[in-house]
Amino acid sequence: SGKYGGGPENIIDKNSFLQALIYTFTFEPFFTFSFIIIILGCILYQMPFIKKKFRNERYYKVLLGVLIAITLQVIIVAKQFTFHYLTPALLLSIVGLYLVISIFALNLSAIKRNIIFAVLCISVLYIDYSKILDYHKMNIDRKEGYYKSYNFIQQNPTTDALIIIPRYYGCPYQEFSLY
What is the reported pTM? Predict the structure, then answer.
């Protein structure tokens, strides 16, 4: 049940599975927001007084398929969590949001629906951009150890074999830098 087969002999480790589910929905606010909106859209569509107003079975069936696909993807990824495995679910959440807007704003013109979707996308991009700026600063801080090792080699040239074993965060292996 652990990564790459390491861990106890069971199919799912309940603690890591629950932690991965919690992390999935707290790490990326857009994904959480869109997942909740898609669930609410599927539930609200079934209400009799709403269904009569917004009757579009084709969009609803696609929306239901998107919800099932996202849910299954989250469950599969939560078993051995790595965030980049959620890329299909993140991409489907955009389609799901567009479908919810298309279903519930059916009385609006196509231009108004697209404006609503564009405003939503721009606000999400702004939130993600601010996150990227934070990650950029973390990556610069992470590279300081690399630059220290590199500067040491440049300042202390030698003809003897030199092995540098860095321990800074971001180095995939301890033996990453062999010179």
Answer: 0.66
Per residue in 91-105, pLDDT tens? 899 899 888 888 888
Distance of CA 175 to the CA centre of its chain: 30
- Separation of alpha carbons 57 and 62, rounded Å: 9
Distance from C-alpha of 76 to C-alpha of 82, rounded to nearest angstrom = 11
> How many other CB atoms are found less than 10 A from the CB of residue 20?
20
> Residue 91's closest CA among 20, 135, 31?
31
